[in-house]
Specification:
The structure is a single chain. Strand 1, helix 1 and strand 2 form a beta-alpha-beta unit. The protein has one domain. The protein is α/β, with parallel strands linked by helices and 100 residues long. The chain is 27% helix and 12% strand. The protein has a three-stranded parallel beta sheet with strand order 1-2-3, with helices on one face.
């Protein structure tokens, strides 16, 4: 299993997929989080077997439910993540939950 993070101008997935026969997990590390549509394109193209969503999963801990139901996504608040406490990790509301 390998996890490839594509960033910048180097087409890592297109270059490395032919060289790796095992399970390949992909992510785009751009200024914006990877979208559902981008993930689906990569999977359909065969460039990866699984997509990871990193920051988008932090702000949407119920991301599979949101994707499946077409629910809106909570935006990523960069000032709230990786701060050393629960704020920004455990306080995003789930679909249908009341905001704090």
């Amino acid at each position: 299993m390998a996890h490839i993070v594509e960033r910048g101008n180097y087409p890592a997935l297109a270059d490395l997929r032919p060289r790796w026969q095992g399970t390949l997990i992909a992510n785009f590390n751009g200024p914006e989080p990877t979208t559902r549509q981008a993930g689906e394109r990569v999977l359909r193209s065969g460039l990866a077997d699984v997509m990871s969503y990193g920051r988008l999963f932090i702000s949407n801990p119920d991301l599979p439910v949101r994707f499946a139901g077409g629910h809106p996504l909570a935006p990523v608040d960069a000032d709230r993540i990786y701060g050393g406490g629960e704020r920004g990790y455990t306080d995003y509301p789930a679909v249908g939950a009341r905001l704090r």
